[in-house]
Amino acid sequence: MLEEDPQLQSVVDKLLAGKQSLKILEIGCGSCSHVDFGPRAYIVGIDVSEKQLERNTILNEKICGDVETYEFPPEEYDVIICWWILEHLSQPYKALENCQKALKPDGIMILATPNVMSIKALVTKFTPHWFHVWFYRYIFGEKLAGVDDRVPFKTFLRMSIAPESIKRFAKEYGLSIERFHLYENPRQKNLRARHWLIDAAWKVLAVVTKVLSFGKLDAEMTDLIVVLKKPAVTPALV
Asked: Which of 104, 193, 204, 215 counts the most CB atoms within 10 A of its CB?
């Protein structure tokens, strides 16, 4: 069960029920996967990092390339996964458009991304990369952070992946929203639980930010998981 979204696996299982085989594309596949598809899955992974691809042992096929520009076969994949990748792209909307073209009718797209309308995202966006590496090493305890193409990666956090922007993308391409889950990142939650001073400061910041942004920015709902489904017959775009 996925800590970030305990219901995600059951939603995906229901949407894919009855399919005997699955061709899956993992975008920015890195070195691990987050959804279980069982033995019926043939998994293709694409990443700009050869080192990350080498560390991923579950892939049946590996592509070293950029999702923003790579030419996928049209309507090729039953499932496309973008897990913590869109925030690292300079043109994430272009990547989403590329993905929807490669998705089969009746296929699903699984997106996991920061909520760009959260305080956490703003702090990430406007702090230097070296600070992110330091934070991962000395606060999260990941000693290899930033080494050999490991997290954290450079971030752009474009507004085109904001929650409302993703809803507009789905509407534009006739995709149904099967799951839309905003949540607080477990790492942030655990950090606040361990350090009362950080928790107190965060709560004050949350109130001030909500007031100053007229409720547009959120301290707690830091991340987003979305499942989109392509109709069995692609409708004509208006």
From this structure: 104
CATH superfamily assigned to domain 8-229: Vaccinia Virus protein VP39 (3.40.50.150)
- Taking the C-alpha atoms of residue 237 and residue 20, their distance in angstroms, rounded to an integer, is 30
Query: What's the rounded Cα separation, in Å, for the pair 78 and 24?
Result: 6
Cα distances (angstroms) measured from residue 131 to each of 126, 135, 139, 154: 10, 6, 11, 11
Backbone angles phi, psi at 64, to 5 degrees: -95, 105
For residue range 10-60, list pLDDT tens digits in order. Answer: 999 999 999 999 999 999 876 556 889 989 999 999 999 898 898 888 899
Note the Cα 117 to chain centre separation in Å: 15
Is the whole-model pTM more than 0.85? yes
23 close to 42: Cβ distance less than 8 angstroms: yes
Nearest-5° angle of CA 78, CA 157, CA 8?
40
Assess whether the previous peptide bond of 152 is cis (omega < 30° from 0).
yes
Both structure tokens of 1: 């069960």
Give the least confident one: 38-47, 67-76, 118-127.
Answer: 118-127
